[in-house]
Amino acid sequence: MPSPALLSVDLNALARNFHTLEAVTGAPVHPVVKADAYGLGAEACATRLMTEGARTFFVARADEGLALRAALGDAPVIYVLDGCHDGAAGVLKAANLRPVLNQPRQMQAWSQVGGGACGIQIDTGLNRLGFRPEDAPEPFEGLDLIMSHLACADEPNQPMNRRQRDAFEIAAARYPGATRSLANSGGCFLGRDYSFDAVRPGVCLYGGGPQGRPDVRIAAVATLTAEVLQVRDVRAEESIGYSRGFVADRPVRAAVVAAGYADGVMRAYGQGGAAWVSGEIRPLLGRVSMDVCTLDVTGLDVAVGDRVELFGANRHLDEAAAAAGTISYELLTAISDRVPRAY
Ligand SMILES: *Cc1c(COP(=O)(O)O)cnc(C)c1O
Q1: 308 falls within a domain
Q2: Residue 329 covered by a domain
Q3: What's the gap in Å between 98 CA and the centre of ligand 1?
Q4: 115 and 39 in one domain?
Q5: Is-contact 81 31, C-beta < 8 A?
Q6: Does the pLDDT at position 111 exceed 80?
Q7: Catalytic residue flag (residue 242)
Q8: Where is the Alanine racemase C-terminal domain (predicted)?
Q9: Is 34 annotated in the active site?
């Protein structure tokens, strides 16, 4: 039975993006597979990336680390970006996960369970997680990663990038021997002086451009398609969907498509959203509802059972995101569990 809505994941394209990032940065690529690999499936993605040579992964939460450890076995190094919350240190340690420590109470929690391999995060300006450089701990046994995170890596001309890079280099010099990592996807494209010893891309592996728009170097990985459930002729002056979200000023042919906000196709798509169908990009008409949305297929040869593409090889993820007033990251991670993944 074909699935009404389906997220197809091209693991060969994922592998190509991995090798592209290696070539661009000249550094080992440590994939970020948090949030179930941005919704694409962490187990499938990380397994393939291991085959391509990845040896170290990043997740956000302890639970994500536990699931990944169970899926991948003992070989890969897995860092948890959240660090270790109160009570989680023992769990991380037992599963051979490495916290990225970001404040003194996490240092204490980790040492209370005996310490061991871990990282620290230095905050160089994002003001999110991490120690200010002047508050960073003395070098200690087990510390093998020093990292920071860029605030504006998707804006190459933003002077803050260089300031963060230089602050990171100075802070990291206190910890000779630890792996230094600064660059996320955007950072991978700022120049090799941002690569340091390892890079941590996420979205570019999964097909998002490093600057929030299509980039020819990055291949599409995820394709969201949905089935046409009904095709109807709507007369002039009739409306479509809840709240008369679209009122026809001429006769239109509309395809009702099996993708709604319960699948992760946000209501925001209703304004300016579009999908690829039968060789053309066509606008959505009216509101997105829970299970369906409606597409203008006037003049096209579209039948029940045809599939339309919300994003993918024909409708770029970044363009789809921009049309919905958001970014590729949110579009991908919003795709719900109701939508099967096919590899
Ligand atoms: C999410 C995240 C990344 C990956 O970011 P992308 O922009 O998707 O490449 C890297 N480092 C940290 C600390 C993150 O939180």
Answers
A1: yes
A2: yes
A3: 17
A4: yes
A5: no
A6: yes
A7: yes
A8: 221-343
A9: yes
